[in-house]
Amino acid sequence: MMRIIIIFAFVLLCGCRNVPLTAGGRNILVISNLDSLPSGCERLEVVVAKAAKGYDQALTAVRNRAAAIPGANTIVINSVEGHTISRRISAIAFNCSLNKATTLAAPEPQSIGVSKELFEKAKKCQSKGGIWVNNQCVVQVD
Fold it and tell me: What is the average pLDDT score of the chain?
């Protein structure tokens, strides 16, 4: 009888493997509720994952699955089910990168006390990938 219990325990423990967090999964922001979600995020789809080793492994699995959705960069935990050993997490995947880009209009040179010639030089510098600092264009060369 003891031999059967030992074999059963060994099979049970070997069946539980760690879920590694993928590079894409590392880039997924986890938010615990919808109230904390930034405005302007686009809802993509629901992601569900289960793990036999508890909450951390289920969360890793759900982050990895969300990373496979094109455009997903944030998840909001929808529900957590199960007990200490086995967990199931349901989350909603979002694309929140849309609210990060902001277009700003360039000010008129006269409004900031700069000559039009200097302003044009700085704009040209920026268009070439440089930064205008102390009346000179600084460009990084690799």
Answer: 80
- Find, among 113, 100, 33, 55, the residue nearest to 73 by Cα: 100
DSSP state of 51: E
Q: Yes or no: say if 46 and 91 are a contact pair by the CB < 8 Å rule.
A: yes
Q: Band the pLDDT of 100: cuts 50, 70, 90.
A: low
Cα–Cα distance measured from residue 51 to residue 85, given in angstroms and rounded to the nearest whole number: 8
Q: Which two tokens stand for residue 129?
A: 């990938």
Domain 14-99: give its CATH code.
Answer: 3.30.110.70
Q: Enumerate the domain spans of the chain.
A: 14-99, 109-138
Alpha-helical regions (H) of the chain: 2-14, 23-26, 55-67, 116-127
